[in-house]
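# step 3/5: fold
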Amino acid sequence: MSDTTFGSSPGSDERTWTLPADKRPPGPLRGLHILVVDDNRDTREMLRQILTHAGALVTIVGDGADAVAVVRNISADVVISDLAMPVHDGQWVIQNVRALGGRAGRIPAIAVTAYRESETEAAALAAGFDAYLEKPFDFPRLIETIQRLVSSV
């Protein structure tokens, strides 16, 4: 098994375990590598479980700087990033990812937030996100959004 967690605090027992490809459950996201960026540990874990159950390989990070480092160094297929995070928020994440250029700079990205204002969605899309979803998550919609974004690349 491999640990795909990045940016955990020292001594943290948070890990993302993945199964070898031949033992992964079939699912609508099979074969995709998804990076989840959220400062809330419970949200990261919930998304890891749902997306892994749907067949994806999931890497989780707790802040924006770690997210950019992962995208720079590891080939992910989709980024799902919370907008409201301390230090480096979701808009900072997407602006820095887009600035990487090449394939990494074009990675499909979904902004997620608990805020329910139309200005928040418009700002996220203008910053460079490809889609916007509100918390609490509608998981079928999340999976459909991921599928739609990767099929349009």
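# step 4/5: annotate
The CA atoms of residues 60 and 141 lie 20 Å apart.
# step 5/5: archive (pending)
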